Amino acid sequence: MTNNKNNDNNTNSDNNSNNSNKPNNNNSENRKNYDKEIALELLTISKSDILSLATVITETTNPQLRELLKLQLTNSLNEHYSLSDIAVNKQWYNAFTNPEQQLKQDTNELQSLF
Fold it and tell me: Which domain holds residue 49?
């Protein structure tokens, strides 16, 4: 009886390992969409951080604090440029198209999901 259970367990693990070795194109596409969503969310957060820093700098009266905030703003801008370059190069973000083209592209992407 014990041998049968071991054989059953081995068969199940063999089946599981066989399933994990099969290529899954849908999984790859999901990963690309996931990466795109993360990048676009990071861009949105980055823009918000830059706007907040710029606002705080204009309201700060302490010169040392203002300089520190300026350095942080410069770093944030550089990181934003790097991230936006990645998103543009991967065609996740089309900064150079007109609004009508962007809307058409977004509509097509949404329709492809259904």
Answer: 28-113
